[in-house]
Amino acid sequence: MGHLMRALCLAEEATSRGWDVTIAGEFGGRAVEHVAALFPGQEIVELGDGPLQLALSTLLAERSADLLHLDTYDEALDSFRPPSVLTSNMQDGMFGRRPADLHIDANLDAEHRYSAISQSDRVLLGSSVVQVRREMRAIHHEVGERPTRAPRVLVVLGGTDPFNITPQVVLALLKHPRIHLTVICRPEAQPELLRSLGADAHRVKMLSFTNDLPRLADSMDAVISAAGTSVWDFASAGIPMAIVAVTENQLPGYSSCAQHGIGFPLGTPPFTGLEDSIGAFLASVEDPGYLRDSAERGRSAIDGLGAWRVVSAWEALVQGTGEQTPPIRHPQLRARRALASDAGRLFEWRNDSSTRAVSRSHKPIAWDEHVTWMGRVLADEHRQLLIIEHGDEPVATVRWDRLGDSAWEASITIAPSYRGKGLGKSVLATGEHWFANSSPKLLLATVHRSNAASRRLFLGAHYLPHLPADSNGFETLAKWQLPSDHSSS
Fold first, then answer.
1. What is the full per-residue pLDDT of the chain (489 aa) written as tens digits?
2. HEC readout, the chain
3. Gyration radius of the chain over CA positions
């Protein structure tokens, strides 16, 4: 269901932007029924028996598809690259990893774990591409003062529970008399769960599924969730939660959530100390300060634009913007740090009419203002001002401004006498190479939507849409620079 819900979230975004979307897979009748209830009118195709690649090839031909998005761990599709169709692939660390035109790992800290398949990978990584349904994004869970009533807790540990952790969690919760408990559990597992509860079974409201998880979760004081895709739904809504890893592929995400304080960590297999951990979590649920902090950490991790970013990347690929391989550094270009003695040259470049035409401010700047600005930039460790030289001749400048823990924004100016000579791609590659080190960076570029040349430059260097255009027409593009990029440039 986690894979299916991610696909549905992307279908929701793509359909709203004019795409014709078919969801296909091996689901089972119950999943198809849920899709019909959650997203009426969404086409869903059960592929059935037979070779999966053949079934998908036939469907792609029938639909005249432009793009195939895969979200599966099925190894039968690891070498599936249909001709004349772009491919987008969702992976979770090493699970579901395969060649594609676009690689997506929408997990917290994925940029630290991603392993490139080729040097030309286009990637969307980390919590910024977490896909959250609009229903969940519309929720802003209210955390009030400590309730006088018994706390309401929802347990939803997904469809796969190989370590049978659900009974352990529920029994530990029921040791606390002041609790209202709702458990979502697949029907075939419910009889055994009810038997394990014995006389306490009446204290648990058991559900096989809910078509309105957002509303149900919002009505609770806290949720206990498996460390899968549901974590991000609850985090974006600000719903306090505890998390537990129930499968191997959830271990990296569980570890990252614990490190960033998103969700109360209950443990991993073999779940020693689970009862004590649940007791500590229930105590924290009684603390309004903890609840507010927990909600804020969850919301700050997810900005709700993950589906927008993925579909925007699809559009860039389908429209053919950008090259298949990123540009490489020109052998005669090199980067150096700017010096105070470069102020005059940069002043002339900045005040050139063509430069001002594509800048946020179109006005010329005064010399005194420029000198003051340059002094601040050279002294600021969060700004890196580079001069790009061809031989001994300065031909461009690249400036990197730090905007967050790992985000840096690029500004490029080509010397007026060198414009139109095709240096832009190599200048950018040279600036990126100088800037690379052992930690991942999210490189950003703010471009006016009317500046077709700059947009082509960054898209060709494998930057992808990151933020929609603002009220002034400036959009933000981004790409991850990973440690391996340095050695391979």
1. 889 889 999 999 999 999 999 999 988 767 788 788 888 889 999 887 889 999 999 999 999 999 999 999 999 999 999 988 999 999 999 999 999 999 999 999 999 999 999 888 899 999 999 999 888 889 988 876 666 778 899 999 876 677 888 888 999 999 988 889 999 988 888 888 888 888 888 899 999 888 788 899 999 989 999 998 889 999 999 999 999 998 888 999 999 999 999 999 999 988 889 999 999 998 888 888 888 888 889 889 999 999 999 999 999 999 986 566 666 667 789 999 999 999 999 999 988 877 767 676 678 889 999 999 999 999 999 999 999 999 889 999 999 999 988 999 999 999 998 888 888 999 999 999 998 888 999 999 999 988 888 899 999 999 999 999 999 999 999 999 998 654 433
2. CHHHHHHHHHHHHHHHCCCCCEEEECCCHHHHHHHHHHCCCCEEEECCCCCHHHHHHHHHHHHCCCEEEECCCCHHHCCCCCCCCEEEEECECCECCCCCCEEEECCCCHHHHCCCCCCCCCEEECHHHCCCCHHHHCCCCCCCCCCCCCCEEEEECCCCCCCCHHHHHHHHHHCCCCCEEEEECCHHHHHHHHHHHHHHHHHEEEECCCCCHHHHHHCCCEEEEECCCHHHHHHHHCCCEEEECCCHHHHHHHHHHHHHCCCEEEECCCCCCHHHHHHHHHHHHCCHHHHHHHHHHHHHHCCCCHHHHHHHHHHHHHCCCCCCCCCCCCCCEEEEECCHHHHHHHHHHHHCHHHHHCCCCCCCCCHHHHHHHHHHHHHCCCEEEEEEEECCEEEEEEEEEECCCCEEEEEEEECHHHCCCCCHHHHHHHHHHHHCCCCCEEEEEEEECCCHHHHHHHHHCCCEEEECCCCCCEEEEEEEECHHHHHHC
3. 26
CA dihedral 163, 168, 169, 171 (to 10 degrees): 160
Q: At residue 257, what is the residue type?
A: C
At 334, the amino acid letter reads R
Are the CB atoms for 168 and 274 separated by under 8 Å? yes
